[in-house]
Amino acid sequence: MKKRVVDFITLLIKDKTKLLKFELDSINKEKNNLKKSSAGDKFETSRALMQTEYDKIDNQLLILKNQLRAIKSISLSDNKKKVGVGSFIKTNKSFYFISIGLGKQIIDNNDIYVISLSSPIGKLLNNKKKGDKIVFNNKEELIENIS
Cα–Cα distance between 16 and 11 in angstroms, integer? Predict the structure, then answer.
């Protein structure tokens, strides 16, 4: 299941990257097609707004690139004794995958929480082992398996 989750996240990030690159190309084409007119201020304002949007999308692309690097660095063969980055955790109530914060994802008809160690639940799960319990939102969960 861990490989399936990593593949799902990788595809999700690659799809988002393609979409953002398409948006950047569209902004560049639109910027290049702007014609300087007698209303120079309008031209400059339009270009500035487009540049701001371009920079925002470019920053999102950098974040996705870093997320993809983090996902690719996860070892699929590690059978962990304690929860850490790359752990796939099955509790008596939920599935968690410790990597990047993407929230709840539906993978193979299972709700899987893709979370980072810095998230509230990630902090609770960090360094726990099979058989340990955590309490989150006043609900107790028993760690049944870590892979």
Answer: 9
